[in-house]
Amino acid sequence: MKPSNDHPVDIDLARRASGLTIGSLFALRVRCGPERVALEQGDRRMTYAELDRRADRLCNHLVSLGIMRGDRVAILSENRIEYIELLIAAAKLGIIAACQNWRLADEELRHCLGLVTPKLILASPRHADVARRHGEVAPVLVFGPDYEQALDAASAERIEDECDPEDGVVILYTSGTTGLPKGALISQRAEIARAMIQMIDLPNTADEHFVAWAPLFHMVSTDTVFMTLMQGGKVIVTDGFDADELAGIVTRERLGRLTLMPGMITPFLAAMKRAGASPAGVRWAGVMADLVPREQIAEVTQLLDAPYLNSFGSTETGLPPASLATIAVGVVPAGLDKIQNSFCRIKLVDPDGREVADGEPGELAIRGPSLFSGYWNNPEANREDLRGGWFHMGDVFVRNPDGTLSFVDRRKYLIKSGGENIYPAEIERVLLSEPRVADAVVVRKSDPKWGEVPVAFVVRRDETLDAEALLTLCRRHIAGYKIPKDIRFVEDAELPRSTTGKIKRHDLEKRIA
Fold first, then answer.
1. Which of 42, 158, 172, 275 to pair with 441, CA 20 to 30 A apart?
2. Which of 195, 213, 240 delimits the end of a domain?
3. What is the phi/psi pair of residue 416, to 5°?
4. CA-CA distance, 244 to 270, in Å (whole number)?
5. What confidence tens digit (pLDDT) does each residue in 56-70 have?
C-alpha cells in the first residue's frame, strides 16, 4: 500500500530533530568527565578533554587542506592513539576514515585506495614508505613530528556538530567474492546503533575498559572503540597482539569485552599462567566460538571467570544478527546454536527470496539500524546483497523450534582464518595469472591454531612448475595471511565437478580432512 502524500506532521523536521551523532554523544562525555582517561597506550594517557582538543585541531588542519564533509581520509597504521584521534575527528567533521589493512600487498592496497579516492593518507612511521609508494593517490602525512607540527599550527577553534546520522564515518574493507576487497561504508547512525545493541545485549559499565589490540581496520575493535568513547570508558590501545602484554592488562584492569580470536588463545593462556596472577575482572570474552576448540573455550572461561561469546556478526552488520548467546564458565559446549540480537529483524530465505519454514535451511537476511550503508562505488554488489531492502549475508541457517539458529554453511564460500576473511577467488586470481597453471581451486582446511587455513589444488600445464614458484607469486600479490598453507598438484580429472562443471569444494575438503 502506498503512503499518502498528505501528512499531519513534517516528517523531515521530525527526522532531523530525532537524529543523534557520534560527535554529540562524545561531547557529552567530555563535558561530564573531562579529566577521565579516554585513551591509554603504554605510559601515555589522554583525557577526554585532551582528546577533544586534539581532534578539533586535526579537524581544523583537515579543513585547511580543503577536506570537507563527505571526503575520505585514508589511514595506514598499526593501532596507536593517533588512529583514534582520526576516528573522533571524522565523527566531528563528517568526513570518512578509510581504514587500510597494512597486511595487504601493494596491488591490493592500490585497489583499496583507488576505490575511495582519499584527499589525504595518514600513515605511521612504520608504514610511511608503503604509503609514499601510493603518493600519486593523495598526499601523505606521517604521525610523529610532521603530524604534531600540523596540529600545533592548526586553529584550536571548536568544531560545531553539523553532521547527519547518515554521514559515513568509516570505510572498513571486506574480502570480495571476485577477488578484490570491497569497502563497506558505515554511518554514524550504524555505529551508534551498534553501540546501543552492545550495551543492551552485552552490557558493561564505563569503569570496565576495552583493550583495542585487534587491528583498528576491523569492526571488532572499531565498533567497540566508538561504543567505549560514547559511554565514557577507557580504551587501552596496544600495538597488536602480545600475549604477555595482554595478560598484564587483564591482571590489572577491569575489562568489559575482551577480544580473543582463534590463534591467540593458546599463547594468551600460557602468558596468564606465567603471570601467575588472577584477572582483575572480565565481563565477556571471545569471538567466533565456532572456530575455537571447545575444550579451549572451557579452559579460557574458567581462567577468566567470564562467559564466552557465541557470536555471529559481520563488518556489514556489527554485532547482529545473532551474537546474544554465551557459553557459561567452564562449560564444554555440546552445540553452538545462536540467539538473535535485539533491535534487528531477520528472515531465512530460499534462492528465490521466499521465507523458509522452521527446520528448513535458508540464507539469513537482516534489517536493522546497525546495518552499513552499502559498498563504496560498487553498485553491482549493492544490488545483489541489499536486494529487496534486506542485507543478504550469504550464510545459511536453520531456525529451531525454540527460536535459536543453527549454522549450516556459507552460501558464499569463505575461509575464516585467525579473524580474517579470505575468499578463495582472491588467491585463485593470482594462481591463474601464472601461464603454467591450467586450473586452480582453493579450499579451507581446519587448523588448530587459526581455525581455518587455505589450501590450493593446482592443475599444471608445465610439469616444471613447483610450489615455491607459486608461493613466491602469491607473496608478490596478496597479503601473507592469504597465502596457501599447502599447494597440491593434481590432474584435471582428479578435481570433482558438478554436472555444470563447477568444482565441488566440499569434496576436496573431505580429501584433505
1. 172
2. 240
3. -110, 110
4. 9
5. 999 999 999 999 999
